[in-house]
Amino acid sequence: MPKIIGTLLVIMLAVIVLVEGRERKAATGKFFGSFGPFFRENADFKKLFGTLLLFIGYIFVVEEVGFTVTSIIFVFLFNVLYTGWSKKALRTSLIISILAPVIVSLIFGVAFNITLPSGICSITFIDYGITIY
User: What is the pTM of this model?
Assistant: First the structure.
């Protein structure tokens, strides 16, 4: 499986290089022209560094708290970071942040029998043989 994923990543990289090179060649006449600045002038550093901080925080918290609860909190925070604080955006973020981790937890934990990080917030339904990590 890792070889398949690696091969797909190499193919996608080649497609990106070819498409970008074709666009550069059409614009400047050179396939490999100047690559430009790493950060664009209109880059949103709040989202960039917010994403990095949330991702690092998630890595440290998920083992202690558990997959589902940590994912609900962090998916909500990621959604709010990118969509804002409007009433509609908050409602959508809340729905997505609850449904997505619970569905992933059920699919991996029940259907595939894969153990996700369990912490202090893991819940086991003994009658049904289901654990939500």
Answer: 0.70
